[in-house]
């Protein structure tokens, strides 16, 4: 994922020996000049911001006619060579557009090649030393990637000396190891890089002592080390090194590594080229790693080490632009009670929890893109993962988060086989996370004591007081005129008030992600009613219960359903889960999983509002339904509209073919009933037969 480089004035840039400056692309004002640039130009640090780049660097009163601003971009460096008559220096110059202090600016890095060239002397049998030096400088300063630049440079060094292998060894003084970081091998020469990743420094005392003294190392015959330095002898002969050229390089005046040439056979009378190139390579490694560090810090969250919100925005935009129809799983996570942890135990405890949660996520979803969006919010995006594998990872991660963080992390996850709308998938994951967060609020006495979410507490209190009342609207068989089943509907009525329709309270519950409590409450009321009828010897009829889309996505759905069914000893087939048309917005694999689990548990499934949305038709091919309910909008002009009659009849015929019962909802008159009966509709619901009834009224029909 490419990002614009966002740099800030920092002492780190002053450590580099190249001249680095940043100027405003609009008025050529200097915004920054590093120590090397100030030293060369004699400009004081406090005067940088009051100066023009063309005056300080070129000695000109007006902008340079050869200015490269028009050629620059944020995507890569524009590289050119320039002899500066004002400074009397030869430079390889790299220019790029960057963002500096929130505005677009020009950053230039100028590498002085003049002094290095003057040090070169004689011609050689294969290359002129000056040509080799300039070419290595050009490669190091123009290649887009550090690895490419160094590998090409090592190849040129090996060719110059006729060596079999050229390589870079870097020193980690803290760990006490030397490590082979770069290597070029001539054809037929085996690589040694993998075997030289953790070489103890005390195992190469001769090399280490020599380089610590800033001396070159020339070994004409490895056998000379057998008696005096046996560990070095074994170290070199193990990789078939008969002779060796090596020069050290430094970082902050301390030996930090060396460049070696195994078995050189030409130009053995000079090591100066290797010495100069070692300096340039070390400087380039230092410079590039500084840039990598700055880019890393711009893209990552400093506390957790995960990608940050800005990286998420880039990732999301790149993914949507790519149009890739890959499988995509998203996990939204929110650390529970993080603010409370900070208040009770201090910021350090909260930080430790964030780090632990990030560590669990990174280990659970290795290879996925993981982002920390804010203090307690995380997003995981796993591309090209199978549904079963994705869900298994989520389950294991949730268990680990619960066991390794004080209060766990509320999670919501979604998965789609062919990604079509990333924002929709993301929204679904966040919705489910918020549902689980509400469950945590309810179950956590700590949370309720300190936060007491207003809507949740009010909802639970109203349920305890019986304000949400169960009503039943009967469904009739038009041929027999008898009740064949019923739909459970909810009405709200507080003490001393009139009954309130769902339209006045359900949208708020859906918005606050609390609808699952009402859905499960109504389900339990239905089980209680059926249990009461059973005890009183009444005939049991199927009753359908409406479930919102977000309740269907809840991961504990099937445990709640089966636990309730077992508790009340009512056959699951007598409870029908009524699903609205909005389920079509759920990912196909998830719909399939919901349907199969409901049927495995013995529950019947009804599709409500069929015909209100074009997406319904595809749902019929994904989930197996027991009942399809025609939307009331199809009934409104059924008698007058011949086209509508044709559509309704076709739907009823289709239901017969699928062996699905078709229910006409919203039937209000005799003409509608007669038409529907003639079309073969076997169940009617609507005010023609009955409005929704209180339980006592329903029992009297």
| Proportion of residues in β-strands | 15-25%
CATH class of the largest domain: Alpha Beta
The total number of structural domains is: 4
From the 3D structure, determine the CATH topology of the largest domain. Answer: TIM Barrel
Helix percent band = 40-55%
> What structural category arises from helix and sheet content?
alpha/beta
Instruction: Tell me the name of the CATH homologous superfamily of the largest domain.
Output: EAL domain
Features of the shown structure:
Beta-Lactamase; 701 residues; alpha/beta; disordered N terminus; Alpha-Beta Plaits; 25 strands; cyclic-guanylate-specific phosphodiesterase activity; 26 helices
Give the structure's gist in a few sentences:
It comes from Enterocloster bolteae (strain ATCC BAA-613 / DSM 15670 / CCUG 46953 / JCM 12243 / WAL 16351). The chain is built from 26 helices and 25 strands.
Describe the protein in words.
The protein starts with 5 loop residues before the first strand and ends with a helix. Helices cover 42% and strands 23% of the residues. β5 (89-100) and β6 form a beta hairpin. It contains 26 helices and 25 strands. The chain is an alpha/beta fold. The protein has four domains: 6-112, Beta-Lactamase; 120-296, Beta-Lactamase (2-Layer Sandwich); 309-450, Reverse transcriptase/Diguanylate cyclase domain (Alpha-Beta Plaits, 2-Layer Sandwich); 454-700, Alpha-Beta Barrel (TIM Barrel). A nine-stranded mixed beta sheet has the order 24-23-22-21-20-19-18-17-25.
